[in-house]
Amino acid sequence: MIKKVLIANRGEIAVRVIRACHELGLGTVAVYSDVDRTALHVRRADEAYGIGPAPAGDSYLRGDRIIDAALASGADAIHPGYGFLAERADFAQAVCDAGLIFVGPPPAAIAAMGDKLAARARMLAAGVPIIPGTERPVTDDEAIAMAGAVGFPLLIKPSAGGGGKGMHRVGEPAGLPAAIAAARREAGKAFGDDTLYLERLIEGARHVEIQVLADSHGNAIHLFERDCSVQRRHQKLIEEAPSPALTPELRAAMGEAALKAVRAVGYQNAGTVEFLLDEDGSFYFMEMNTRVQVEHPVTEQISGV
Question: How far is CA 221 from CA 169, 239, 273, in A?
Fold first, then answer.
């Protein structure tokens, strides 16, 4: 039984998790960097532990200090929130190895969905539609040779990371060499991994994400969709729920596809499965965010969950 939770985060998400814990009658432990000593999440928690100087690399990204604080406080579980260590399979594993509960997906599920090529392979095997593209990493020469089969316009995408970093649109063969070089350079710098693959660009598509929840007994549900098609530089600006583009039939089909994705990796806890929705009603798996999202309050407003 969980009686006390340490929240390995700060700011808005830490405050929200603390509130949820208190509603469940659970004790809460905050962590803080030197500069956050009097922050709201520290004041709202039942107890708090300092974990280092202001730079995140010396505090909120120090998984060892966070686990030490959890053990010192007598916490049973650690909730990572979003950002920082939330999608780090090694941190989730370290939490489990310390005899604590990680309030999130199993480490193996985080790892499976963190590599976009591995995730595509899992989804294809599970019967979830994926965007046409290459199914393995490509060298520069292979990318040029295989681009025609993928079709133009296409995207050169890093297998690691997200947020549009290292992703390049290519409209014709002549643009491939420069775009490949730039994508590889940016991916290596941002993620420490310059593995690339190709994916067809579906122009005019909407970006629709399905909120999922799964427990440790094999039960999974979805809480409908959020339409996040309004973006700038691959960053979401507006989340709209329900999506104005979905019929009841399409909503049911996308929801079931999201649950197939959940089952394919043994997922637990909150997560989001992201799809591209083509103008003809076809939809394709993009990626899965293996954490609670910034956008979850939109789902709370339409579902009450």
Answer: 35, 20, 12
Contact 282, 129 (CB under 8 A): yes
* Measured distance CA(201)–CA(210) in Å, rounded: 21
- What residues pair up with 287 in beta bridges, in sequence order? 274
Residue 116: per-residue pLDDT = 87
Round to whole Å and give the CA distance between 260 and 280: 22
Which of 12, 102, 90, 4 lies closest to 49, judged by CA? 4
**Looking at residue 96, what is its pLDDT?**
98
Q: How far is residue 165's CA from residue 133's CA, in Å, rounded to a whole number? A: 19
Name the token pair of 268: 């637990």
Tens-place pLDDT, residues 138-189: 999 999 999 999 999 999 999 887 777 899 999 999 999 999 999 999 999 9
Catalytic residue among 10, 62, 184, 291: 291
Catalytic-residue membership of 120:
no
pLDDT digits (tens, 9 = 90+) for 21-44: 999 999 999 999 999 999 999 999
Sheet holding 283-289, edge to edge: 220-227, 206-214, 269-277, 283-289
User: What beta strand segments (E) does the chain contain?
Assistant: 4-7, 27-33, 47-52, 77-79, 101-102, 154-158, 168-170, 196-200, 206-214, 220-227, 231-232, 235-236, 269-277, 283-289
Residue 261: closest CA among 293, 286, 281: 286
Q: Over 90: is that where the pLDDT of 288 sits? A: yes
Phi, psi of 26 (to 5 degrees): -95, 145
**pLDDT given at position 222:** 98
- Two tokens, residue 55: 């730079």
